[in-house]
């Protein structure tokens, strides 16, 4: 892979035009994140946020009424 400056930017990546440049089978371009190895108590676990509109009684009643009217 070459640029307009005629020097390789990513010499380890395989370019279909250049058969000589390639990655070895065991190597990867992207690094593996280290937090996937195990559960870490230091990380904050994401929680689904509560939507106050959907949890309101008025919204539930309106949704129920709309479903009933749709079935008719």
UniProtKB/TrEMBL annotation:
InterPro entries: FAM107. The keyword Coiled coil applies. Keywords: Coiled coil. Pfam families: DUF1151. The keyword Coiled coil applies. PANTHER family: DOWN REGULATED IN RENAL CARCINOMA 1/TU3A, PROTEIN FAM107B. This is Protein FAM107B.
């Amino acid at each position: 892979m070459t640029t307009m400056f005629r020097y390789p930017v990513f010499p380890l990546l395989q370019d279909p035009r250049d058969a000589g440049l390639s990655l070895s089978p065991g190597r990867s371009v992207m690094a593996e994140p280290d937090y996937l190895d195990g559960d870490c108590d230091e990380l904050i676990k994401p929680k689904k946020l509560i939507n106050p509109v959907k949890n309101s009684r008025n919204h539930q009643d309106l949704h129920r009424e709309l479903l009933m009217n749709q079935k008719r």
